């Protein structure tokens, strides 16, 4: 199975690109969605985070106030590291379990949409790595518009992340998303054909069908050897 890594900066357009993959029947493992589940009221992750950050981060109904927690962690690196450390085991196991489900369904290509792909070292497992890049002004403008946030809040979120130029330098494929959605769609068509190239041998043996063929081969081999002796 081929696991494509999809990453970029906040509001650079990862989800927009992910939905293009999805429209082409390539399933997505979305780390932001998994991270939300990990912080759901009553979950083990929720309990650890509330114990560490205190009840002030909760809304009246007991759910985490994401805006409030976001303000705290995106303006303080040590608190951000603490939150990441507390949630990392739950996010990782959520990602593994999604990958396993898709492997069992026999998908040949899947996309891991992980904002912290490099920081959390998921890049070792993904090939190719696609980075959605955008220039800093466009990123700030789109983020403020999407989240209806102030320049200060949006700037804090951007500077809390690894630089987008550094991510770009570590990419196999860069998608420049500074232009229009139509420009993005055109660039995406090239990327799709690269991602859909036939599987390498290693990827084939790591696919469900390849692994089952290998297992069957081993069983037949063992039976044949036993019959001979
Ligand atoms: C702080 C939280 C509650 C803010 O929630 P909010 O709904 O406002 O933002 P959302 O979850 O949609 O994240 C938006 C973007 O912020 C960026 N981001 C999120 N967490 C982090 C982090 N720890 N470090 C750097 N950037 C981050 C990502 O680009 C993400 O796509 C939330 O982001 C969170 O729980 N973060 C910790 C979990 C995590 O590490 N998520 C990243 C998945 S790899
Ligand atoms: N080429 C484009 N032209 C105009 N708007 C765009 C373009 N690409 C994305 N957007 C808009 O920019 C915003 C950010 O895009 P998107 O949500 O896909 O980013 P993201 O990288 O997934 O963000 P996050 O890291 O927060 O999950 C969205 O409102 C989206 O509709």
TrEMBL record:
Keywords: ATP-binding, Nucleotide-binding. CDD domains: DPCK. It comes from Hibiscus sabdariffa. Pathway: Cofactor biosynthesis; coenzyme A biosynthesis. InterPro entries: Depp_CoAkinase (IPR001977), P-loop_NTPase (IPR027417). Pfam families: CoaE. This is Dephospho-CoA kinase.
């Amino acid at each position: 199975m081929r696991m494509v890594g999809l990453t970029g900066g906040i509001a650079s357009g990862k989800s927009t690109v992910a939905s293009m993959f999805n429209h082409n029947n390539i399933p997505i493992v979305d780390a932001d969605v998994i991270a939300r589940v990990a912080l759901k009221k009553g979950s083990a992750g929720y309990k650890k985070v509330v114990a560490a950050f205190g009840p002030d981060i909760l809304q009246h109904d007991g759910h985490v106030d994401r805006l409030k927690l976001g303000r705290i962690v995106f303006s303080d690196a040590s608190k951000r590291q603490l939150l990441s450390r507390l949630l990392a085991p739950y996010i990782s196991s959520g990602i593994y379990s999604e990958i396993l489900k898709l492997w069992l369904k026999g998908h040949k290509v899947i996309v891991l949409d992980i904002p912290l792909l490099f920081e959390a070292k998921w890049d070792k497992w993904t090939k190719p790595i696609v980075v959605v890049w955008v220039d800093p002004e466009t990123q700030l403008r789109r983020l403020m518009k999407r989240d209806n946030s102030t320049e200060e809040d949006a700037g804090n979120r951007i500077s809390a992340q690894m630089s987008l130029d550094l991510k770009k330098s570590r990419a196999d494929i860069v998608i420049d998303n500074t232009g229009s959605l139509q420009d993005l769609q055109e660039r995406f068509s090239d990327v799709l054909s690269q991602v859909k190239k036939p599987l390498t041998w290693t990827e084939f043996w790591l696919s469900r069908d390849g692994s089952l063929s290998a297992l069957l081969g081993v069983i037949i081999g063992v039976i044949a050897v036993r019959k001979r002796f």
